[in-house]
Batch of 2 targets.
Target 1
Amino acid sequence: MHLALKASAVCAALAVGFFASDILSVFNQQSGSKPIDDYCVLSTEGCTQQNVTMSLNSDIAKPLVPIQVTIEWPNAQSDVLSLDMQGHEMDMGTAKYRLTRTQGDQFQGEIILPVCTQEQMTWLGTLSDGNQDVFPAIRMEQ
């Protein structure tokens, strides 16, 4: 009986170690996630958040099809904006993009969202000039 208890403890320790990163990522996502209502859903019509106006050249993004993002950011602290996108309905990792200043307060960039197994997906993002963050969201359909 004593040997069986030791073997069970070793197996349990190995299982916990194997799944530790997955378990931690679930807890980190739940504790640090923002409500979806805090995001500005992008479309061809501009969406404004914290005096930053964001838009797309299409109302719905398609996987692996380039889509143009246009940002009006008055007094941006950088000539390059960073955009980090994560899937809401499914963990797809983080897609990172850079948007460059085209003229004045306007920034543009082309993004390509990865393929997802779901028919529809919402990508939630953090757009930053290095000093201030805004939170865009993009709807994607197959």
Target 2
Amino acid sequence: MLSNLSFKKQRLIIILGFTIIPLILLLTFSYYPTVELIHLSFTSWDGMSPDKSWIGWDNYREVFSNSELFGVFTHNFAYFAVGIVQNIAAIYFAIVLNGKLKGKLFFRLLLFLPYILNGVAVSYLFGYVFDTTNGSLNLLLHAIGLGGDTSWLGSEHFVNYTLASIGFWKFMGFNMVIYLAALQSIPADLYEAASIDGATGWKQFLYITLPNIYKIIELNFFLTVTGALEVFDLPFVLTNGGPAGASETYVMKILETAFQFNNYGLASAMSVVLLLFVVIVLSIQRLIFSRKGD
């Protein structure tokens, strides 16, 4: 059918098709749900009734005044702290595996492999590792004389750091690959010239490597912050928010409010608050990185 049309008409139809169809999908599955989410946040709705009573800002007042809702954000700090260490480790391994190391392709694969594993499967795997009585970690610590009776998932003080360490193991390889790609884009002539001028490895890292991967560091910190704020699967599968709600995250609280207490209006308000919080945090991060970049 298109063959009977002129080249200009064919070109116009193809351009419109590749433009309009993605735009329709974007409006249907992204912008419309966002607008509806904001609308529901100002209502009282149980998820079933056709009646959606308008209650104004009451849901938002409840979010910020109820420490059980907004206070769980403090549990996400452990994931952010471990995420920073994860990025540092990823940069280190990327630099090492970008050099002349025998078997580096094998080590790249080995470090990246955890990322492609299913998140739920990883959670169950580490459930056996951190088990108090028969866990492999406690058995190892007991064998080398370093105790072995620690309740890794049962302590309110470090349960979130235990869970975050699983994220370290799973996502460090992904960040490493991104840094590795950035390192391979740096011309080797820069390092050769620096070596001739007597620059040490540390100076080459500070004045050549770091400035050239600065934007990639910013990207990975963006992923780290959003991941820390939106973590869900690890605490949900391993602890279900325990002990005594110590590992419950904000996203878990949203789902609990919506599906357990059937308060979709309040859950929508919590989701909007999370969205705004992510935007604010990332704007601050962007401001900090842009100033340092200058």
